[in-house]
Specification:
The chain is an alpha+beta fold. The protein has ten helices and 21 strands. The strands form five sheets. Strands 4, 9, 10, 11, 18 and 19 form a six-stranded antiparallel sheet that branches. A five-stranded antiparallel sheet has the order 1-21-20-3-2. A four-stranded antiparallel sheet has the order 5-6-7-8, with no helix packed on it. A hairpin with a 2-residue loop joins strand 16 and strand 17.
Amino acid sequence: MDALKKIFKFLSSMTFAIILLVVLAAACAAGSFITQGQTYEWYAEAYSESAAAWIMALRLNDAFHSVWFVVIALFLCGNLLLCNVIRLKSLIQKSRQAGEPKKEPEQTADAMAHQISDPVQVFERLRMPKPKSLEQDGKQILFSVKNRAGIWGAWVCHLGILLLILGFGLGQMTKAEYTVYGVPGQTLLIGETGLFLQIDDFQVNLREDDTVEQYTADITVFRAPQGSTAEPDSEHAVISVNHPGRMFGMTFYQNATGWAARVTVEKSGSPIQSEIVCAGEYLPVVDLNDLVIVFNAFYPDYVSVPGSMPMSASSKLNNPGYLYSVYYKGNIIGMNVLLEGEQVTIDDYTVTFTEPQNYTLIQIKKDSFTWLAFMGGITTMIGLFFAFYLQLQAVCAVRDEDETWTVYGFCNKGGKLYEDLFSRAVQNTEKEAGRKE
């Protein structure tokens, strides 16, 4: 039984909480510095084979979903919960006692004054609530207390941290992320959600110095109708960088942009394929899949400098240049830059690039526990406010036999600052009384 008590005491101790926080911080740092979601081969090439083996063995490639991370988070949540449950009874009792005058104020006061003729002014100068008048041990007492909520500061802060960890942990385990990109007019499937994203419009706003000021996408998300007569369930939003939209329980972020163009393939002079392709994508020729056209990069204001890589003089569409490469059966057979109106011929096939336009890349996140993490953050801030700005203060005035009053001051922080504050209030009260006399 004693061993169980010791274990319980340790699990609910501040020492164990600090150990868990250090370990959790180290785990979060590892998950931040190590690229997540990659393969063994990727880590072996990026670091080394031995490092890759350790990363895969410790699940550092998916740290926030690993068993050990969940166990650490659960232990920390349990520790915080035990701390709060254990302290709850004593805090309730302490809060009740703070609302009552002390039996022997002269022994516990942080500051005191003798022979005050008008104690009410001391209460007012200390900005205390209107004092209550009561009788204790045959003596008249005036008593006032403020900032009792300050007693709960650490407890509320612990509760907020608990909610934060729960919200973050549950969110990481259950969240879903999707990425779609395209140009206005396209409709794209959002993963396995059964929802479609339609890009209605996309604008890139530039500053006077030709740098990007903002990306703005006008999008509609809808669910395909069930039945031929049903209307599609849809929601609409305008999103931009740092201004996401929320639809169907998901958050849509304007993440990035790039260039796209229409790639047209003709065979013996007849069009057989015409598709919008984003820079970095490839297009297999429809009737000869071994022949692949890759749209490597786009230069809106193409400039050719001998001996150097292709470049763009500005972001304006003055002289569009399309860097392409052609592969056949996995082997590159050609690479060059096409200008507007030019074409490349591969045997019977002719390829042209036209209609340059910006595409929008939209990141979509679904986290059912964001609200819990948000509530945790708010609760933590409230707890910190209680702890640092709501200092419990009480003032008690006891009427002496000579009809004068002895005033006592109590503050949970105490210290020289409170003594000085109390002394100034008493001195100013005495000065005011002296002037009246």
